[in-house]
TrEMBL record:
Taxonomic lineage: Bacteria, Bacillati, Bacillota, Bacilli, Bacillales
Record InterPro entries: Glyco_hydro/deAcase_b/a-brl, NODB_dom, Polysacch_Deacetylase
Domain NodB homology: 109-282
Transmembrane segments: 5-22
GO BP, one annotated term: carbohydrate metabolic process
GO cellular component: extracellular region
Protein origin, superkingdom: Bacteria
Residue ranges the record marks as coiled coil: none
Listed name of the protein: NodB homology domain-containing protein
Primary localization: secreted
Length: 282
């Protein structure tokens, strides 16, 4: 009984501390309530945490976006991917998606699974299941924060773990900036301000150098922190030979989607219900 009480106390403290951190540094991303159109479903996840019914309940009532909007629990994640498999979806890579876009021909029932930030929860809770199922997936790493034991309240995956995932030949690795994953002055990420374009260029160069130093090849895919960039940052990335640029603008990727504005659906309870309705009405 005492262990349960201490567990609840620690969970409460953890939830409250994250709440105040994210209230200061993050804004909850608008939830996706309706999906329409035909094309490829690109899913986005951040954290895949372990948790029982009680943990989920406490997370829900906390109102903390980190524990709701940016977290999917392991059992729910497995159910979601299994649901897609049962409904005839096949899972693709960014390389395949790029080829579809170039040919202006995107088949139905294709899905691309992506993860941003890449803390230890992705390695510990999502990767083993996807490996066992032989499902390809994509991770977008913050190259300057890899291996950090404390980054915005997260314990980040190490380079050795990222390389282990890559060595399965199931994982595509992209960039999520080098050191620009933060909100400036409680408003917006720094790269959205025109005056900071040179800072974005420098950061992008650093990301590519770090990526190459650890992985031995140039990155081809980029995902914006907080969901989107600007036409000028798009131009920078395209000039650096990025093949696809991923956003968090919700929707389906179709044959007319530009390679610099790939839509993704941030998966939470509400958006997952919208995904199921879209599939069942197809």
């Amino acid at each position: 009984m005492k262990k349960k009480i201490w567990f609840l106390v620690l969970l409460f403290i953890f939830s409250v501390s994250l709440f105040f951190f994210y209230k200061q540094h993050h804004k909850p991303f608008p939830q996706t309530k309706k999906i329409s159109g035909n094309g490829c479903l690109v899913l986005n996840y951040h954290r895949v945490r372990s948790g029982n019914a009680l943990v989920k309940f406490l997370a829900k009532i906390s109102g903390n976006p980190e524990l709701n909007t940016y977290t999917v629990y392991k059992d729910d994640f497995i159910k979601q991917i299994s649901f897609l498999k049962r409904n005839g979806f096949y899972f693709i890579t960014p390389e395949k998606l790029s080829a579809y876009i170039k040919k202006k021909n995107i088949p139905g029932k294709c899905a691309l699974i992506t993860f941003d930030d890449i803390d230890r929860s992705v390695f510990n809770n999502a990767y083993p299941f996807l490996k066992q199922q032989k499902i390809p997936f994509t991770i977008f790493i913050i190259t300057g924060e890899v291996g950090r034991k404390y980054f915005n309240g997260l314990r980040m995956a190490r380079w050795e773990e990222i390389i282990e995932m890559q060595d399965t030949n199931l994982v595509t690795i992209g960039v999520h900036t080098h050191k620009l994953h933060y909100i400036e002055e409680g408003e917006k990420p720094p790269f959205l301000k025109t005056k900071n374009l040179s800072k974005f260029i420098e950061d992008s160069n650093q990301a590519k150098k770090s990526f190459y130093a650890h992985l031995g090849y140039e990155p081809k895919y980029f995902a914006y922190p907080y969901g989107y960039g600007t036409p000028k940052t798009d131009d920078v990335l395209l000039a650096q030979n990025y093949d696809l640029i991923f956003t968090l603008s919700p929707g389906i990727v179709d044959a007319n989607s530009p390679n610099f504005f790939i839509k993704r659906i941030l998966v939470d309870d509400i958006s997952w219900e919208a995904i199921k309705k879209w599939i069942n009405n197809d």
